[in-house]
Amino acid sequence: MRKILHLNAAVALAAAVVLSTAVPAAADSSSCTHHLSGPQVCIRLEGSDVWATPVAIWVNPPKKATSRQVSLYVNGERYRFDRNPATATRVGKTLSYTWNRTQWESEDRICVRFKDIDRMACERIKSINRAQF
After folding, report:
1. Which of 3, 72, 121, 129 would be 79's cystine partner, CB 3.0–4.6 Å?
2. What are the tens digits of pLDDT across the range 64-78?
3. Which of 35, 29, 119, 120 has its CA nearest to residue 79?
4. Residue 74: exposed, middle, or buried by beta-carbon count in 10 A (0-12, 13-18, 19+)?
5. Nearest in space to 65 (alpha carbons), one of 41, 89, 43
6. pLDDT tens per residue, range 34-90
7. What's the Cα-to-Cα distance from 113 to each of 25, 54, 117, rounded to whole Å?
C-alpha cells in the first residue's frame, strides 16, 4: 500500500511539472461580419498566445472576382508594414490573404477591410495565462 501511495505522489508531481512548463494552448479565433445580405468578411487569427497570423477572408465574393486589395488595422489604425494593403486572391469560393506571423499586444483589436467594402471584421488578441502550481 505504501508503494502505491509513493507511486501516486510521484505521478502527481510529474504531471504538475509537465503542466507548469507546457507551452500555452493554441489560441486560434475568428470573427465575421453578420449581415443578412451583401459581402461577408471574416478575420481568422492563427497562433498561440500573443503570436498570431492574421488571415482575411471574403466568404461570398462575386464569381468573377479573382483578387481584391485588403488592409489590416490594429486598434483602429491602418497597420504599416511592407504588404499593407495586400492582394487577396481566390482560393476555392473565397478570396483570402494571410499576413506573416507577428507578436501583438494582449487585447489588441485586429481588423481587416477589403477595398470597396464598408464592412470590417475584427478580433481581439487573447493572452493565455499559464496554470500556476
Report:
1. 72
2. 999 999 999 999 999
3. 120
4. middle
5. 89
6. 777 889 999 999 998 889 999 999 999 999 999 999 999 999 999 987 667 899 999
7. 28, 12, 7
